[in-house]
Structure prediction request, 566 residues.
Amino acid sequence: MRKLVYLFTIILFVSCKNSEDVVSSVAAERGVIAEKAIVVSARKEASAIGLSILQKGGNAFDAMIATKMALAVSYPFAGNLGGGGFMVYRTANGETGALDYREKAPLLSSKNMYLDEDGNVLPQKSRLGAMAVGVPGTVAGIFETHERFGSMPIAKILEPVIQLAEKGFVITEKQQRNFIKYRQLFFEANQDTILFARTYAEGDTLKNPALAKTLKRLVKNGRAEFYEGETGEKMVNYLQEKGGILSMEDLEEYHTHWRDPVNVKFKNLNIISMPPPSSGGIVLGQILKMIEDFPLDEYGHNSLKTIQVLTEAERRAYADRSFYLGDPDYVDIPVDSLLSSGYLDRRMNTFSFEKATPSSSLEHGKIPGYESDETTHFSIVDQYGNAIAVTTTLNGAYGSKLYVEELGFFLNNEMDDFSSKPGFPNMFGLIGAEANAIAPGKKMLSSMTPTIIEKNGEFWMSVGSPGGSTIITSVLQTILNVSEFDMTMQQAVNAPRFHHQWLPDEILFEPSAFSEEILGSLRKKGYNINEGESTIIGKVDAILKLPDGRYEGGADRRGDDAAVGF
Ligand code: GLY
Prediction:
């Protein structure tokens, strides 16, 4: 049973939830309400640490660093030092921007590195173990954020995180299940047992003193500790011992990028989202513009017509994603054309309510003159009016499963987000082309969609999700649930979701959440239905500014997520 604790006078608001919550009970639901500031993340420890930084006078960027590192301690499934991510921000004075701290391909990587001598893809090689690891960007990302926007010393920001690593966190039921599920893969990747492969019971406290020591060295030596110092050297030595190609040179050459966000108008909303090397902002923008003229509110939430319109727009946008999008430092991306109304109207010309457009009959759109991929999200709004949306990833659950015991963290398998071979699907079933081919130093295409939305020129929502290819459509449906279907933030996050990504040509539905009547009608119109047994589509954490100026946090019922505020 969901517990919502409204403690307006003693400042802290905590939402706890469990997976038995049923969708039909969502009707009157409201998330945690906060007067001034709020943090929503995948773990209550991380949200509480982020909030404690705000309570000490820190800003959203200080809290971003603390929350992110606390997720690395308490949510090793996706929280990380050995991965990367993206941040979209909007400051109190309305300035917006985006930080790209995505991983990149090692200098010794090559286009065909995941093919055997017959040209066949070796999928495990880009997913498990040392060859799957891209150059991590997370530590560079937090120091870059601190340098530009931080207001508290890094030692003060990381103090509660180091304490969490030393004192430990309580293992939840979901975590315990995951440790068992991945134990064999941990062994295969490391050829040894690791901290997370030991036998734990739900409710045990897990301490990570090695990670606490790594964090202390980061406090002492800064960014250089990871990219030039002891931590980097130990990580590279471990990777090379396990057959990897990542070198100190790769670490020394790693840079973050401040980028201009994708800006898209949707009705009275200004959508500010992540540009390439994430596909998130462009694909979200394309879908929103393709559906803008359809009266979804009249059709109804998750009605037949709404599902059709969204599916067909998603199909077309993901086809474009696969052809046009990659690292903007390596490929020219026709961003303006891809987001132009004329082009998107033409893309929807072939849509009919009568029957599905088969993906086999649909390619990427033609743009004249053009020549020519588990994760966690958190949102924060501080008491000063700054807002951030951060999505960060190791890619698969626990990344490559490679764990540097001495340093206390997992390494990503982000290399699988590249296209190993044109037309061959990655772990999310996404197809890529030349634009997302592997090249030394290149960043792999992402679907992460950290997004901030303005309404009438003011902050309105911060939203994002994990879920690989389903990130974009989860963010899309959460926005529409509030803007078109008048849901609260919590309802919007909890509502059942569906997903289409061009190929495979099927609509993926969360199980037991859509009526047989709707599914049957879709089948009759030619849609292929996949109601995966245990499918979770996204795990959205979001913040909505309410008309009275307070904030509502939506922490996804699908995880151990928690919103806290004051
Ligand atoms: N690793 C998932 C993504 O970036 O899309």
Remarks:
- Residues 1-27 have pLDDT under 50 and may be disordered.
- DSSP finds 17 helices and 23 strands in the chain.
- The longest strand covers residues 84-90.
